[in-house]
Protein backbone atom coordinates (compact mmCIF):
# COMPACT_ATOMS: atom_id res chain seq x y z
CA UNK A 1 0.00 0.00 0.00
CA UNK A 2 2.90 2.37 0.78
CA UNK A 3 4.40 1.77 -2.65
CA UNK A 4 0.99 2.42 -4.26
CA UNK A 5 0.68 5.67 -2.32
CA UNK A 6 4.13 6.80 -3.43
CA UNK A 7 3.19 6.01 -7.04
CA UNK A 8 -0.07 7.96 -6.84
CA UNK A 9 1.55 11.13 -5.53
CA UNK A 10 3.47 12.03 -8.73
CA UNK A 11 0.41 11.10 -10.81
CA UNK A 12 -1.70 13.46 -8.72
CA UNK A 13 0.91 16.20 -9.07
CA UNK A 14 0.96 15.82 -12.87
CA UNK A 15 -2.84 15.86 -12.98
CA UNK A 16 -2.96 19.08 -10.98
CA UNK A 17 -0.38 20.69 -13.26
CA UNK A 18 -2.35 19.72 -16.35
CA UNK A 19 -5.50 20.96 -14.73
CA UNK A 20 -3.85 24.35 -14.35
CA UNK A 21 -4.94 25.08 -17.91
CA UNK A 22 -8.57 24.95 -16.81
CA UNK A 23 -10.33 28.24 -16.16
CA UNK A 24 -10.69 28.72 -12.41
CA UNK A 25 -13.44 30.99 -11.09
CA UNK A 26 -14.63 31.85 -7.65
CA UNK A 27 -12.90 33.77 -4.87
CA UNK A 28 -12.14 33.34 -1.19
CA UNK A 29 -14.45 30.93 0.59
CA UNK A 30 -14.70 28.65 -2.44
CA UNK A 31 -17.79 30.27 -3.98
CA UNK A 32 -17.91 29.11 -7.60
CA UNK A 33 -21.50 30.19 -8.29
CA UNK A 34 -20.73 32.67 -11.02
CA UNK A 35 -21.98 31.11 -14.27
CA UNK A 36 -25.59 30.09 -14.89
CA UNK A 37 -27.68 28.83 -17.80
CA UNK A 38 -31.39 28.50 -18.47
CA UNK A 39 -33.80 28.45 -21.41
CA UNK A 40 -36.77 30.49 -22.61
CA UNK A 41 -39.72 29.15 -24.59
CA UNK A 42 -42.75 30.46 -26.50
CA UNK A 43 -41.44 34.02 -26.45
CA UNK A 44 -43.16 36.56 -28.71
CA UNK A 45 -45.97 34.04 -29.28
CA UNK A 46 -49.52 35.24 -29.76
CA UNK A 47 -51.63 34.59 -26.68
CA UNK A 48 -48.71 33.41 -24.56
CA UNK A 49 -47.63 35.28 -21.40
CA UNK A 50 -44.19 36.85 -21.16
CA UNK A 51 -41.27 35.06 -19.50
CA UNK A 52 -39.16 36.77 -16.83
CA UNK A 53 -35.53 36.40 -15.81
CA UNK A 54 -35.04 37.42 -12.15
CA UNK A 55 -31.63 37.88 -10.56
CA UNK A 56 -30.70 38.84 -6.99
CA UNK A 57 -27.40 39.82 -5.40
CA UNK A 58 -26.99 37.67 -2.27
CA UNK A 59 -24.98 40.43 -0.57
CA UNK A 60 -22.29 38.07 0.69
CA UNK A 61 -19.57 40.47 -0.42
CA UNK A 62 -21.50 43.67 0.23
CA UNK A 63 -18.52 45.41 1.84
CA UNK A 64 -16.04 44.55 -0.93
CA UNK A 65 -18.42 44.45 -3.91
CA UNK A 66 -21.58 46.39 -3.00
CA UNK A 67 -22.85 46.07 -6.52
CA UNK A 68 -22.51 43.41 -9.21
CA UNK A 69 -23.55 43.17 -12.84
CA UNK A 70 -25.42 40.32 -14.45
CA UNK A 71 -23.71 39.83 -17.82
CA UNK A 72 -26.52 38.30 -19.88
CA UNK A 73 -26.12 36.50 -23.22
CA UNK A 74 -29.19 35.47 -25.22
CA UNK A 75 -29.04 32.73 -27.86
CA UNK A 76 -31.70 31.49 -30.26
CA UNK A 77 -32.44 27.81 -30.87
CA UNK A 78 -29.85 27.74 -33.67
CA UNK A 79 -27.05 28.40 -31.15
CA UNK A 80 -26.56 31.96 -32.38
CA UNK A 81 -26.08 34.81 -29.90
CA UNK A 82 -28.77 37.41 -30.58
CA UNK A 83 -28.27 39.96 -27.81
CA UNK A 84 -26.22 40.70 -24.70
CA UNK A 85 -26.00 43.24 -21.88
CA UNK A 86 -24.76 43.78 -18.33
CA UNK A 87 -27.35 44.89 -15.79
CA UNK A 88 -26.56 46.28 -12.34
CA UNK A 89 -27.76 44.47 -9.20
CA UNK A 90 -26.97 46.09 -5.84
CA UNK A 91 -26.41 44.05 -2.68
CA UNK A 92 -29.76 42.44 -1.75
CA UNK A 93 -31.27 43.99 -4.87
CA UNK A 94 -33.57 42.44 -7.47
CA UNK A 95 -33.27 42.64 -11.26
CA UNK A 96 -36.20 41.53 -13.43
CA UNK A 97 -35.80 41.24 -17.21
CA UNK A 98 -38.69 40.67 -19.61
CA UNK A 99 -37.99 38.08 -22.30
CA UNK A 100 -40.28 39.69 -24.86
CA UNK A 101 -39.72 43.38 -24.16
CA UNK A 102 -36.01 43.35 -23.33
CA UNK A 103 -33.98 40.19 -23.84
CA UNK A 104 -35.28 39.41 -27.34
CA UNK A 105 -36.54 42.85 -28.38
CA UNK A 106 -33.30 44.37 -29.69
CA UNK A 107 -31.19 41.70 -31.35
CA UNK A 108 -28.12 41.90 -33.55
CA UNK A 109 -29.45 40.81 -36.90
CA UNK A 110 -32.83 42.49 -37.03
CA UNK A 111 -34.29 39.27 -38.45
CA UNK A 112 -37.38 39.51 -36.28
CA UNK A 113 -38.65 38.08 -33.05
CA UNK A 114 -37.34 34.80 -31.68
CA UNK A 115 -39.41 32.23 -29.81
CA UNK A 116 -37.02 29.95 -27.94
CA UNK A 117 -33.40 29.55 -26.98
CA UNK A 118 -30.82 29.69 -24.23
CA UNK A 119 -29.82 32.40 -21.75
CA UNK A 120 -26.40 32.47 -20.06
CA UNK A 121 -25.47 34.70 -17.12
CA UNK A 122 -22.08 35.62 -15.66
CA UNK A 123 -21.77 37.21 -12.22
CA UNK A 124 -19.43 40.14 -12.82
CA UNK A 125 -17.84 43.14 -11.13
CA UNK A 126 -17.69 44.90 -14.52
CA UNK A 127 -20.48 46.83 -16.28
CA UNK A 128 -19.19 45.68 -19.67
CA UNK A 129 -20.50 42.35 -21.06
CA UNK A 130 -17.52 42.27 -23.44
CA UNK A 131 -14.99 42.61 -20.60
CA UNK A 132 -16.27 40.59 -17.66
CA UNK A 133 -14.61 40.48 -14.24
CA UNK A 134 -15.87 37.29 -12.60
CA UNK A 135 -17.11 37.89 -9.06
CA UNK A 136 -19.65 35.52 -7.45
CA UNK A 137 -22.75 36.66 -5.63
CA UNK A 138 -25.65 36.55 -8.07
CA UNK A 139 -28.49 34.02 -7.97
CA UNK A 140 -31.30 33.74 -10.49
CA UNK A 141 -34.62 32.24 -11.51
CA UNK A 142 -36.50 32.02 -14.81
CA UNK A 143 -40.17 31.61 -15.66
CA UNK A 144 -40.88 29.25 -18.56
CA UNK A 145 -43.95 29.40 -20.76
CA UNK A 146 -45.14 25.87 -21.52
CA UNK A 147 -47.61 25.06 -24.30
CA UNK A 148 -50.32 22.50 -23.58
CA UNK A 149 -50.40 21.18 -27.14
CA UNK A 150 -48.20 21.06 -30.22
CA UNK A 151 -49.39 20.57 -33.79
CA UNK A 152 -47.29 19.90 -36.88
CA UNK A 153 -48.26 21.32 -40.29
CA UNK A 154 -48.79 18.78 -43.05
CA UNK A 155 -45.47 17.69 -44.54
CA UNK A 156 -43.40 19.26 -41.75
CA UNK A 157 -40.01 17.61 -41.65
CA UNK A 158 -38.95 18.79 -38.22
CA UNK A 159 -40.22 20.49 -35.12
CA UNK A 160 -39.01 23.89 -36.35
CA UNK A 161 -42.37 24.08 -38.11
CA UNK A 162 -44.36 23.03 -35.08
CA UNK A 163 -47.14 25.32 -33.89
CA UNK A 164 -47.53 25.45 -30.13
CA UNK A 165 -50.88 26.42 -28.68
CA UNK A 166 -52.31 27.41 -25.32
CA UNK A 167 -53.71 27.49 -22.79
CA UNK A 168 -50.29 28.04 -21.29
CA UNK A 169 -48.61 26.85 -18.13
CA UNK A 170 -46.04 29.04 -16.38
CA UNK A 171 -43.29 27.29 -14.43
CA UNK A 172 -40.29 28.75 -12.64
CA UNK A 173 -36.90 27.17 -12.00
CA UNK A 174 -33.60 28.31 -10.54
CA UNK A 175 -30.84 29.05 -13.03
CA UNK A 176 -28.54 26.06 -13.32
CA UNK A 177 -25.00 26.38 -11.92
CA UNK A 178 -22.75 25.51 -14.84
CA UNK A 179 -19.14 24.77 -15.73
CA UNK A 180 -17.23 27.75 -17.08
CA UNK A 181 -14.19 26.94 -19.19
CA UNK A 182 -11.72 29.52 -20.40
CA UNK A 183 -12.91 28.95 -23.95
CA UNK A 184 -16.55 29.53 -23.04
CA UNK A 185 -15.65 32.63 -21.04
CA UNK A 186 -13.71 34.11 -23.95
CA UNK A 187 -16.32 33.15 -26.54
CA UNK A 188 -19.21 34.79 -24.70
CA UNK A 189 -17.37 38.11 -24.50
CA UNK A 190 -16.05 37.93 -28.07
CA UNK A 191 -19.43 37.07 -29.61
CA UNK A 192 -21.05 39.88 -27.67
CA UNK A 193 -18.36 42.33 -28.80
CA UNK A 194 -18.60 41.30 -32.46
CA UNK A 195 -22.39 41.42 -32.38
CA UNK A 196 -22.55 44.88 -30.84
CA UNK A 197 -19.95 46.17 -33.29
CA UNK A 198 -21.48 44.70 -36.42
CA UNK A 199 -25.01 45.40 -35.22
CA UNK A 200 -24.30 49.15 -35.13
CA UNK A 201 -26.32 49.73 -31.99
CA UNK A 202 -28.53 46.70 -32.19
CA UNK A 203 -28.17 43.76 -29.84
CA UNK A 204 -27.70 45.58 -26.53
CA UNK A 205 -30.59 44.43 -24.36
CA UNK A 206 -32.03 47.16 -22.08
CA UNK A 207 -31.92 46.80 -18.29
CA UNK A 208 -34.96 47.23 -16.06
CA UNK A 209 -34.71 49.68 -13.20
CA UNK A 210 -33.72 47.73 -10.10
CA UNK A 211 -36.52 46.44 -7.86
CA UNK A 212 -39.10 46.96 -10.60
CA UNK A 213 -40.83 43.64 -11.19
CA UNK A 214 -43.36 42.44 -13.74
Q: Could you characterize what this model shows?
A:
The chain has a single domain (24-198), classed as TM1070-like (Hypothetical Protein Tm1070, Chain: A, Sandwich). Helix content is 19%, strand content 34%. It contains 3 helices and 9 strands; from the N terminus they run αβββββαββββα. The strands form 2 sheets. Strands 4-3-6-1-9 form a 5-stranded antiparallel beta sheet, with helices on one face. The chain has a 4-stranded antiparallel beta sheet with strand order 5-2-7-8. A hairpin with a 4-residue loop joins β3 (67-76) and β4. The longest helix has 18 residues, at 2-19. Residues 1-22 and 26-30 have low confidence and may be disordered.
The CATH architecture comes to Sandwich
Order of helices and strands: HEEEEEHEEEEH
Query: In total, how many beta strands?
Result: 9
Largest sheet: 5 strands, antiparallel
Question: In terms of per-residue confidence, which ranges show pLDDT below 50 for 5 or more consecutive residues?
Answer: 1-22, 26-30
Q: Give the count of helical stretches.
A: 3
Total domain modules = 1
Q: Give me the Rg, rounded.
A: 20 Å
CATH topology name: Hypothetical Protein Tm1070, Chain: A
Shape: globular
Beta-strand level of the residues, as a percent range? 25-35%
What percent of residues adopt helix (DSSP H or I)? Answer: 10-25%
Mean pLDDT level: 82
Structural class: alpha+beta
First-last Cα distance: 62 Å
Which CATH class applies here?
Mainly Beta
Walk across the major sheet and give the strand order: 4-3-6-1-9
CATH superfamily: TM1070-like
Amino acid sequence: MKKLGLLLLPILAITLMLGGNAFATGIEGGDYSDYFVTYYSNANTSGAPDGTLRIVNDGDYATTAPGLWAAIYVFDDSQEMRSCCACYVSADGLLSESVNKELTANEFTGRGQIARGVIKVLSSASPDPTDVAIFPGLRGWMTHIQATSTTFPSGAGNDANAVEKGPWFVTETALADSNLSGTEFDNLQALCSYGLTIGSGYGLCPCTLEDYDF
